[in-house]
């Protein structure tokens, strides 16, 4: 797991992955939730980069992104998840 913050403290990123790339684990579902921020970008991968290979993203119909969650789509997700990446933005306090 890797968590990062931008210099202006407005963007946060979180990546959860299996360093070896493809996982032997079998996922029936997944859900990641962000609190105190809104998701700007997210991506889920069936295989993470390893051994000179690139990340292989899940098909868009396999997962859904809302303002605060990234989760599997019931009946569409093919049970392969090796990496999940989220970038979220905190609300800016205006004077």
TrEMBL record:
<dbReference type="GO" id="GO:0005615">
    <property type="term" value="C:extracellular space"/>
</dbReference>
<protein>
    <submittedName>
        <fullName>Myeloid-derived growth factor</fullName>
    </submittedName>
</protein>
<dbReference type="GO" id="GO:0001938">
    <property type="term" value="P:positive regulation of endothelial cell proliferation"/>
</dbReference>
<dbReference type="Pfam" id="PF10572">
    <property type="entry name" value="UPF0556"/>
</dbReference>
<dbReference type="InterPro" id="IPR018887">
    <property type="entry name" value="MYDGF"/>
</dbReference>
<dbReference type="GO" id="GO:0045766">
    <property type="term" value="P:positive regulation of angiogenesis"/>
</dbReference>
